[in-house]
Design brief:
Elements lengths: L1 H22 L3 E3 L6 E3 L2 E5 L5 E5 L5 E3 L2 H9 L6 E4 L13 E2 L8 H6 L4 E4 L4 H9 L4 E3 L5 H14 L3 H22 L9 E4 L2 E2 L2 E2 L6 H8 L3 E2 L13 H7 L3 E5 L5 H9 L8 H4 L3 E4 L1 H5 L5 H12 L1 H4 L2
Parallel strand pairs: 5-6, 5-8, 6-7, 8-9, 10-13, 10-14, 14-15
Antiparallel strand pairs: 1-2, 3-4, 11-12
Helix pairs in contact: 5-6, 6-12
Length: about 325
C-alpha cells in the first residue's frame, strides 16, 4: 500500500513538472525577475504576402515610415523603437530617436549599426528590404491602404511584440471614434452629402482618386470626393475640371502655405470665381500628416473632416 502510494506521488509530481515546463516554454523570467520574457518563434504575414519569422521578444525596432512609428508609440511600444526616419515626427517622443535617413532612402549602414531585431518598412523600401533580408534581419512591410488595413497593421505589429491586448484596445478606441461620426452622419440623406475637393498638390493640381487612403477618410467623414470616379491614387487634374464639378468644400495640406496665399492662387484659376467653396469661404488647410498617414490617428482625421463638412451637425 505504501509503495503504491509513493509511486502515485512520484507520478503526480512528474506530471506536474511536465505541465510547468509546457506552460513556461513560451515565456521565461526576465533578468533580475523583471517580468516574463517571450521566447519562441511566431510567423506573421505582411502586406506583400511575405511570411516573416519573429524569434523571441522584440527589443530593438526600427521604423521606416511615419505611420508605423505612430502605431508603435500608440501601442505603448515606443521604448522599443531605436531608429526612425527624418519624417517620423509624431508623437514628439519619436523625434528624439536615432535617425536612419529619409523616407525613401534610409541608410542601411546606420540601420545595421543599431542592430534591430525587427524593421517596419513600407512599399517604397523594396531595395532596403532585400538588403536587410540578406543579413537575416526580419522586415515587416506594412502599408495600409484603408481603415480596415490600419486595424490589420496595428494587430500585426502588436503580434510581433506579443502585445495583442494593447492592439485590441487601440483598435476599439479608433472604431469608437469612427462609429461616433457615422452615427451622426446616418441622419444625412445621400443627396445632402457635400462635394469635396482635396488638393494634395497645387502645381499642377493633384487630387485624390478612389484608390487613395485620403478618399476613404473624406468618404467616412460624409464628404463626396469630386474625383471619386478616377480609379487612381493621386490623379493630376485640371482647374477647369474642378470648377465644373463645383465643390462646396476645398481641403488642402496646411504645409503648402497660408490660407491667404492659397486663396490668392485659387482666385486666379479659370472658372474658379463661381466655385461654391470660394463663394462661401469654405477653404480649409488641414494637417497633412493627420490626413495622409494611415495610422492610429485615422479616427481623429475623420472627425476633423466631418467637423469641417457639417459644423451644424457636429456642434462646431
Amino acid at each position: 500500500m505504501k509503495k503504491c502510494f509513493m509511486k502515485n506521488c512520484f507520478l503526480l509530481l512528474a506530471v506536474t513538472l511536465l505541465l510547468v515546463a509546457a506552460l513556461t516554454g513560451c515565456t521565461q523570467e526576465g533578468v533580475n525577475g523583471e517580468g516574463p520574457q517571450v521566447t519562441g518563434e511566431i510567423t506573421l504575414v505582411d502586406h506583400k504576402g511575405r511570411e516573416v519569422i519573429i524569434d523571441g521578444e522584440l527589443e530593438r525596432v526600427i521604423s521606416l515610415s511615419p505611420s508605423n512609428t505612430e502605431i508603435m508609440f500608440a501601442l505603448g511600444l515606443g521604448s522599443k523603437v531605436v531608429g526612425v526616419t527624418d519624417y517620423c515626427n509624431y508623437p514628439p517622443e519619436a523625434a528624439g530617436k536615432e535617425k536612419v535617413g529619409g523616407f525613401s532612402d534610409p541608410s542601411i549602414e546606420v540601420i545595421l549599426t543599431l542592430e534591430p531585431d525587427l524593421v517596419l518598412a513600407g512599399s517604397l523600401h523594396e531595395e532596403a528590404v532585400a538588403r536587410l533580408e540578406e543579413r537575416d534581419i526580419p522586415v515587416l512591410v506594412m502599408e495600409p491602404k484603408s481603415v480596415e488595413q490600419v486595424y490589420e497593421t496595428i494587430r500585426t505589429v502588436a503580434a510581433a511584440a506579443r502585445a495583442e491586448e494593447a492592439a485590441e484596445t487601440l483598435v476599439s478606441e479608433i472604431k469608437q471614434q469612427v462609429g461616433s461620426v457615422q452615427e451622426k452622419l446616418d441622419t444625412l440623406a445621400e443627396g445632402d452629402k457635400i462635394p469635396v475637393y482635396y488638393e494634395l498638390w497645387y502645381d499642377p493640381p493633384m487630387s485624390i482618386g478612389n484608390r487613395s487612403f485620403i478618399h476613404e477618410v473624406v468618404t467616412l467623414a460624409g464628404g463626396k470626393n469630386i474625383f471619386a470616379d478616377l480609379d487612381d491614387n493621386y490623379p493630376t487634374v485640371s482647374p477647369e475640371a474642378v470648377a465644373q464639378k463645383n465643390p462646396l468644400v476645398i481641403l488642402y495640406p496646411d504645409d503648402h502655405g497660408t490660407a491667404i496665399m492659397i486663396r490668392e492662387q485659387y482666385d486666379l484659376r479659370p472658372g474658379w470665381s463661381k466655385v461654391s467653396a470660394l463663394q462661401e469661404e469654405r477653404i480649409y488647410g488641414v494637417d497633412s500628416d493627420l490626413f495622409n498617414r494611415p495610422g492610429p490617428r485615422v479616427g481623429l482625421a475623420i472627425q476633423t473632416a466631418a467637423d469641417l463638412f457639417y459644423p451644424e451637425l457636429f456642434g462646431n
